[in-house]
Amino acid sequence: MTEANLETILRKVQCFSALDDDALELLRESMQPREVPAGTYICHEGDEGDRLFVIEHGEVAVLKRGDRAEPVEVATLSGGQIAGEMGLFGPRRRTASLRTGRDCRLWELDYDVFQNLLNTHSAFARALLACMNRHLRRETSVVARLLSQDSETGLKVAVFDTKPYTKAAFERHNPHHYALTFYEPRLTSETVALAAGFKVVCVFVNDQLDATVVEELAALGVELIALRCAGYNNVDLAAAERCGVEVVRVPAYSPHAVAEHAVALMMALNRKSHRASNRVREGNFSLDGLVGFDLHGKTVGIVGAGKIARCTMRILRGFGCEVLVHNRTRYEDLERELGVRFTDLDTLLRTSRVLSLHVPLTPETHHMIDADAIARMPDGVMIINTSRGALIDTTALIDELKSGKVGSAGLDVYEEERGYFFEDHSDRVVADDVLARLTTFNNVMLTSHQGFLTREALDNIAATTIANIRAHETDTLEAVAGNRVSHAPVEA
User: Fold this and answer.
1) Minimal CB count within 10 Å: which of 170, 176, 219, 358?
2) What DSSP string describes 124-153?
3) pTM (predicted TM-score)
4) Which of these is catalytic: 388, 400, 472, 491?
């Protein structure tokens, strides 16, 4: 038997399945070959077993005592199969007899040799412990898997980071009567244990599904991560693929909702509606400092050409704006239909009076609006971001707000929003100095990621999420292929 073949066979033993090459080499060196003639009993049922057998070639009959204590053949082992692995962790009674059916060649590893290996090679012991720990985590998920198969309650779904409006929408759109359990906490490494007993977890933008959390979910028997949002930068997709966990999202819950919020920020900042409202409440009816500009005829740059971006284009064209678009793909049909013009990013930055971001967060788009990008923009530019906070280098934005290079900013997202957005912090001090500084500018409107928050959007999110879960349950995800998340960037 070649070393490669023996390594492959040893990896079939669960406690050895993920050992590295060095650890497997130590195992191979500790095993001894043995030639066994046909008809020989290798061990007897009830004997104390203290070794592992790897069959290189030949056949071995597995015998159990019948009602009259007569041995009955219940299985046959052949080349490449294993027996007696549990004997390595302490001598125990054999549950069956093993008898060669024809001449065999075996490889043996006995208990004493294995224990000596553990005692004298600490690296091997650590590697084995790590491997067994992973196996133990998988085995402890059995109870969770059984719970998730509870036929009386239907498919069980854990919905994390929920608010009253989330629960109400999902309860309105649950035609398959899934057993929805709503958790207020976000899904993180500290709360992942709450997913025990569920096949599906439903998460939002600020849940943290890094590799550790995804692996824990898989160990608990979770088969599907259902995002109730378009973005997916908070999920380790490589870990999900490695663990066999499907990921789905809601790519177009209501592009109108987000687009309208983006334009609302533009209008409020331009006409300084927030400042005017505050003045009137205080009895100040002065118009000084509230001068805006006509959006009609102004050039607005839109980064991205997905559904939300297209809705934004239509609204702005309705205002009579000149719209420039930068996107990885040029869509000539949009140019003809809406009268927009696709261009390179540098041209868009240099000529746009207003800039609106509508792209997903990827390594390529992270901090795409930084000090260098802002330096290329016209003085007094308005920047709108309703997509993902980390598209903008917030420190650079603050510097240019102070200098006056940036005339105003409308932000529905913030790159470190996870600890604050969606929660009430009014009775506490905001410890994030960057966030606190943003709130001091009278030419900045910062909203708490509420662009999606319309009844229509909430209903669409819930309905699409339930449809995604149903497609997974019925093995018809191909029907909603556009909702499945891959490693390729997807237009917002």
Assistant:
1) 176
2) HHHHHHHHHHHHHHHHHHHHHHHHHT-TTT
3) 0.64
4) 388
